[in-house]
Automatic annotation (TrEMBL):
GO terms for molecular function: NADH dehydrogenase (ubiquinone) activity; NADH dehydrogenase activity. Residues 132-403 form the NADH:quinone oxidoreductase/Mrp antiporter transmembrane domain. GO terms for cellular component: endomembrane system; membrane. This is NADH dehydrogenase. The chain crosses the membrane at residues 6-24, 36-56, 76-100, 112-131, 137-157, 169-187, 199-224, 245-263, 269-296, 303-321, 327-352, 373-394, 417-443, 464-484, 496-517, 641-662. Keywords: Membrane, Transmembrane, Transmembrane helix.
Amino acid sequence: MTTTTLAVLVPLLPFLGAVAGLLLGRTAPGFVRPLAVLPPLGALALAVTVAVRQGSGQAVSAATELTPTGSVPIELALYIDGFAALVAVLVGLVATCVQIYSTGYLRDDPRYPSYAALVSLFTSAMLLVVYSGDLMVLLVGWEIMGICSYFLVGHYWETPEARAASIKAFLVTKLGDVPFLIGLFALATDAGSFRITKILGTVASGGLDHPTLIALLLLAGVAGKSAQFPLHTWLPDAMAGPTPVSALIHAATMVAAGVYFVARLLPVFAASAAALVVLAVMAAVTMTGSALAALAQDDIKRVLAYSTIGQLGYMTGALAVGDRGAAVFHLISHGAFKALLFLGAGVIIHAAGTNSLAAMSRMRNLRARVPDAFWTMTVALLALAAIPPFSGFFSKEAVLGAAEHVATGHTEGVPGAAGWIVLVSGLVTALLTAAYAMRLWLLTFRGHGAEAPDHGRQPLSMNAVLWVLAVPSVVLGLGIGPLPDWFDGHDLTPTLTTSVLATGVALVGAITTYGAWRHTSAMAVHFPIGVVAAYPDADGGMVEAEAIASHAPAYGDVASAHDPADPGRLLLGPLHRHAAVGFHLDAVYAALFVRPVQAGAALVRFLDREVVDTYVRGAATLPRWLGEAVRRAQTGNVQTYVSALLAGTVVLTVAVLLVATAGA
């Protein structure tokens, strides 16, 4: 079987699995779990085969025209280079792990069949984006992911938080998609084609007429889909969905699509120095702001959500300095350890019965209840903090090394300002990342107080995938030698300067947080949490839904109370209350957009009811009055009719006489 045929089957298998799952979910429920797991597993095997065959060789390119569309044709095209091959393997791996994990995590959920089908469709859409060689076909996968995210984030639709989060995610990403679509049409108009290879050829020959405008329009869509400032606010709220969905969105789909799109079309953005500087500023604000916000969050999933936003900032920062190899390397590395962090968090939430770090910090021996999650999340947090020799160290230092080369003038064609912006913000974020990673680990696994609740061991399907994802989190960086074969021969070895500097600041951040925790723990007064023992067994997904909706169902005032052992408050000081609410960006959007739109809608409703409806009702009232008058005249009395006839005759006679007299 040819590589092209195998590549076509990679996104097709999950799509067929989604269709079959929807059709058989009610009539044959026994097939739901196999149909959920086997298609992404088959797609993973085929993606690995395609990657091995492609290797460092010539990119796989094939196309067939779908239908004549005029001057700019739309083609069903494949374009698979080393980047696409590796990202497809990541998507297949994470999707398979998520589906296996979900068989245990949502085993009692009555909506599991539709959930599993949507996850498969989500996976298929992302694989279509990765392998597509035509921008219009890519856009199809891009939009399907947005629709799937709406349903998956709103899976627990019984809770108002899930409903609001799904609507917010859909609207914010669609807000970015409007200029994105305009940018795609402008790009295709300049290049005369939607084919990526032809567009890149046009860029190489200097054929783009408006590179800055096109790049900025496309960046709006990327900011929405990849949760970059200022369109990042939907991602923390999307934690209202099931934890496996969070893992899928954050690690391999949706948010990774924007970064991958820029990496695929990097020459388009590099054609405009202004666009690269804008991208660098966007990355800097995103990574530093989200790291500060993560240090102040109490919800374990919101900490990880803001962490994802910051790591995506590293990826866009690498693209801003023109190094797509470093960006995709960090995308792959981050995908492995972030999926592990979210799935591990799901195990902890089921064991603790809450998302609240404040509540977990008052639980003794929680790590003994979840040993698999403890050890694997420790590995993932070390990778997140970029501590050698874990994978995050190599990929993050590749980003900082690329920024250093640009800042010091060793890379041509990229503004030096972009390099300095990314380098400085990247080092600051490395300090903050290690700080919030250490804070999360301490509050989760080093709590003091009452004994942690015992809900029994988690299902094997949940614990097994944690160890599967721990492997690339440990060894991916150690395999840096053969990786350049898939990265256009680009050397990804970290530079000595940035390695020492970034590791140093990361250690400073971790040690400072540990010291702050020791200081606050010594003064903390831990509240009793005996109510935990009465909390229902965490067997079904609805336990998490209740914990997400409010910490109160499990812990009452204890979970919402100020945690004196939280080192984040000490480290951030007066900035803490602002960082905890995302620096009030949602409030700003509410004032600038939400309330004016609601006021406009209220005005339209008033005009419709009080003005338009008044005319409509008036038009019907006059005929009704006339009809009422005529109806009253129809009494059925012959004498009345004769009297009326005579009266009418007299009136007409008098009228005729008056007219005749006036004429004489």
